[in-house]
Write a structure and sequence with these properties.
Helix content: 25-40%
Number of domains: 1
Mean pLDDT: 82
Strand content: 15-25%
Structural class: alpha/beta
Order of helices and strands: EEHHEEEHH
Radius of gyration: 14 Å
Distance between the termini: 37 Å
Shape: globular
Largest sheet: 5 strands, mixed
Bound molecules: zinc ion
Length: about 120
């Protein structure tokens, strides 16, 4: 991976981290995720709590655990590749810089919401 200068944009629920040269796609991905979140949250019956501490509790003596106010949504600097919601960190990650439709970013958000939906006892 080449050296990257990262920038961040924030909305109510997300912090988008993107390579400096990808500001437009950074803004677009943030807008796409934020605008769809109320509907997807209602549809799936869950809210983003962004608290991965429960599943990392057993590791807290030997792992540095970060807690964020907003869900980190990271746009990688590889031109193509998969997007996913990381089941451990609970970040959303998308390895791409070329243009994508809003549904791509919303698709990854659904994966993230499914972790809350499928595993409610861990997230209480
Ligand atoms: Zn998928």
């Amino acid at each position: 991976m080449r050296d990257t200068e990262w920038e961040r944009l924030e909305s109510s629920h997300f912090s988008i981290y993107y390579p400096k040269e990808a500001k437009n796609i950074g803004k677009y991905s943030l807008y796409s995720a934020e605008i769809s979140y109320p509907y997807l949250s209602l549809l799936l019956g869950v809210k983003l709590k962004n608290n991965s501490n429960k599943i990392l509790d057993s590791q807290k003596d030997r792992t540095l655990i970060s807690k964020f106010e907003r869900v980190p949504y990271i746009l990688g600097n590889i031109s193509d590749g998969a997007g996913f919601a990381n089941p451990v960190s609970l970040n959303i990650e998308a390895q791409m810089l070329h243009s994508r439709t809003a549904s791509f970013f919303q698709h990854e958000l659904v994966h993230r919401l499914m972790y809350e939906h499928n595993d409610p006892p861990l997230r209480k």
